[in-house]
Amino acid sequence: MAHGLHPLKVVGADGVLVVNPIRCLFLGRKEITDASAGCGGVAIRLRDGHLVTAWAVQKSNVSCWPGRPTGADAVAAAIRHAPG
Question: Would 68 disulfide with which of 6, 59, 61, 63, CB 3.0-4.6 Å?
Answer without folding.
Answer: 63
